[in-house]
Amino acid sequence: MPKKLLIVTGGGDCPGLNAVIRGVVKRASVIGGWDVYGSIESFCGILRDPPEIRLLTSETVARIHVQGGTILLTTNKGNPFEWSWRREDGTVETIDRSDELIAKIREFGFAGVISIGGDGSQRISYDLGNRGLPVVGVPKTIDNDLAGTDYTFGFQTAVQTATDAIDRLVTTAESHNRVMIVEVMGRGAGWIALHAALSGGAEVCLIPEIPYDINTVKERIERRFAAKRGYSIVVVAEGARPTHGSITTIGSSEVGRNPVRLGGVAYALSRQLKDAGLSADIRETVLGHLLRGGSPIAFDRILGTQFGVHAFDLVAAGSFGRLVSYQGTQVTDIPFSDALMTEKLIPAEHQLIETARGVGISFGDGK
Ligand code: F6P
After folding, report:
1. What is the pLDDT of residue 303?
2. 110-117: strand order across its sheet
3. Ligand 1 geometric centre to CA of 119 (Å)
4. Mutate which of 152, 157, 187 to test ligand 1's pocket (most atoms within 8 Å of Cβ)?
5. Residue positions annotated with a catalytic role
6. What's the pLDDT score for residue 309?
7. Ligand 1, closest atom to CA 261?
8. How many A from CA of 263 to the centre of ligand 1?
9. Ligand 1 — pocket residues by CB below 6 A?
10. Is the pTM of this model over 0.85?
11. What are the pLDDT digits (tens) for 159-194?
């Protein structure tokens, strides 16, 4: 009898998820003795009645590493410890279904679970592991903010998409002598913004790790116009904030998720620059979910495949409670707890910050 392995993809989608799924399934077929299944929409597929679980074969996963999204679908509302839904009278009910989930996974006979997700999903994996679920985690997020791994897959694709967008915005900015503000995702971390600002050749890069002074930003842009360069590119991370201000958010009424969504800082910054007296024309572009969509670039296909193979090998070896990790040039694994202690932010002394300052990019802090 072959052993059974379950894959789930949780949280926001990310380019490279399908490459990980394919890596696991192909490795399982090379090793033999395993049947791999996928639960639809993270753990929801297990908890549904009837359950939504798919057998994944080499045929099912053929060429999916090229596709964006996840063939298993995903959700950021499927926390089994805080399972929420809206009753008919409009009130929200929340219960803990984690014991039921673990019991069902045992009933189905799964010898191991590979959970592909970001920090929220890995916190769930860790808690399920502490309750006895044999689970291995694979770190995913375009934001690259998960501690314990140098890179998460999806990040490099997001940077490439942002770079392509900036390249296009430069030509229209130049034609009109405009300031173009480009908002990118990243939550509390500025990794996407910093990389995109460097590769796109921006004048200003505003990140959550360095609160900005609006007059300093304005002066940097004015210097550029005074030097008759004609236009400016400002990259701003969605979680950036002014020195004496707060982050820009959009409320959310979606049940079962964080009620605070980030977004709109490009427009807030535009208003702040106008209020500070900047006379140049300003236009705002929010790249948002474009950064999560589409086909992964080669780097993320390769990293996803490496993560998938390594995750399968951990399951086959019975090494549970581990998170796959990329360190230097090596794929390895660490205990979940090492990754979940803190959010991975950009350190002030990071070499890329120095490089950016070295080519005149302003972080709005006057340095
Ligand atoms: O964590 C990835 C991310 O893309 C963040 O940068 C962003 O704030 C968030 O997801 C948005 O998620 P969603 O719109 O799916 O709730």
Report:
1. 98
2. 53-56, 34-39, 3-9, 110-117, 135-139, 322-327, 330-335
3. 12
4. 187
5. 143
6. 98
7. 8
8. 10
9. 12, 76, 118, 141-143, 185-187, 238, 262, 292
10. yes
11. 999 999 999 999 999 999 999 999 999 999 999 999
Please identify every stretch of the chain with a pLDDT value under 50, giving residue numbers as ranges: none
Mean pLDDT of the chain: 96
Element (H, E) at 115: strand 110-117
Task: Give residue for tokens 């002394």.
Answer: 349
For Cα atoms 5, 11, 13, give the angle at the middle one, nearest 5 degrees. Answer: 90
Measuring CA to CA, how many Å separate 235 from each of 145, 198, 199, 347?
A: 18, 10, 11, 19
Strand 249-251 and strand 260-262: the pairing is: antiparallel
How far apart are the CA of 164 and the centre of ligand 1, in A? 20
Taking the centre of ligand 1 as the mean of its atom positions, its distance from the CA of residue 235, in whole angstroms, is: 18
All residues at 6 or more sequence positions from 250 whose CB lies less than 8 Å from its CB, including other chains: 261, 262, 263, 264
Backbone angles phi, psi at 233, to 5 degrees: -110, 125
State which ligand 1 atom lies nearest to the alpha carbon of 289.
4
* Per-residue pLDDT, 252: 76
Residue with CA nearest ligand 1 atom 13: 12
Neighbours of 29 (CB within 10 A): 16
| From 184, 292, 344, mutation site for ligand 1 pocket: most ligand atoms within 8 A of C-beta | 292
3-class secondary structure, 91: coil
User: 225 alpha carbon to ligand 1 midpoint, in Å?
Assistant: 34
Ligand 1 atom closest to residue 291's alpha carbon, by position in its atom list: 4
Cα gap 285→322, rounded to integer Å: 39
List the end-to-end C-alpha distance of the chain, in Å, as a whole number. Answer: 64
**What pLDDT is stored for residue 163 in this prediction?**
98
Cβ-based neighbours of 160, under 8 Å, separated by 6 or more? 297
* DSSP state letter for 342: S
d(CA 147, CA 338): 7
